[in-house]
Design brief:
The chain has about 240 residues and is an all-alpha fold. It comes from Probosciger aterrimus (Palm cockatoo).
Length: about 240
């Protein structure tokens, strides 16, 4: 009886164990579901945080870009203002320099007028003792003589330039003709060398031709002798 009850008891124990395992599995499934729900909630929270962070970053980038744009505009404005200021300072400095140059020129002209005032007195004295009526006539006559003198100098300069050009052309023509003569001499030397070479070649080929004729005569004699010997042997 004990032997027949043992499998039944073991089966009941196995069923009990199976129920316990099933219950434990169901508990694990519930725990897993709860954990998955928590993970899903956490995942939604993370997505929401990511979207919020992305929106915040976009807003921050927009603000940074606007700040950069404003800073660049301010920098450009300051640069233009500084360039205008430098330009005005440069123009003021140039105006001061021009004013200083004009002052120096005025002073030099004033000194020159004071220096040449004695010549006015001299010209007045010249008018008094000459046939000229006033100083302007003297100056006109002087300018005319100066123009004539300048024309003479220009004419001499032109003649000098023409003479120089003629000399340059003569030198160029002489150089070209000397080069042609040298070329003709070189060609003549080359032709003479070719003539000498041709003469040597003619002499060489004449010698060769004489040797060929001599050899031909010798061979003809040998051929006649051979024919006579063959004829004698035949007979």
């Amino acid at each position: 009886e004990e032997d027949s009850l043992s499998p039944f008891i073991r089966l009941q124990e196995k069923k009990k164990e199976a129920k316990l395992m099933q219950k434990a599995l169901e508990v694990k499934k519930e725990e897993f579901k709860e954990r998955m729900k928590a993970v899903a909630c956490r995942w939604r929270d993370l997505h929401a945080q990511e979207a919020e962070l992305k929106t915040h970053m976009e807003e921050s980038l927009r603000i940074v870009k606007e700040d950069d744009k404003m800073r660049v505009q301010a920098l450009k404005k300051a640069t233009k203002k500084r360039e205008k200021k430098i330009q005005k300072e440069f123009e003021l400095l140039r105006a001061k320099r021009e004013l200083e140059v004009l002052r120096n020129k005025h002073e030099k002209l004033h000194n020159k007028v004071q220096k040449y005032s004695i010549f006015k007195k001299y010209l007045e004295d010249v008018v008094k003792i000459s046939q000229f009526e006033d100083i302007q006539e003297v100056i006109s006559r002087y300018k005319m003589l100066l123009r004539v003198h300048r024309d003479l100098e220009q004419s001499q300069e032109r003649h000098k330039e023409m003479s120089e050009q003629a000399r340059v052309l003569l030198d160029q023509y002489t150089t070209e003709k000397e080069a042609e003569i040298l070329q003709y001499k070189n060609e003549l030397v080359e032709l003479q060398q070719r003539s000498d070479q041709v003469k040597e070649d003619v002499q060489f080929w004449e010698t060769c031709w004489a040797g060929i004729q001599k050899t031909s005569t010798k061979k003809t004699l040998e051929l006649g002798t051979i024919r006579m010997a063959i004829l004698n042997l035949f007979q």
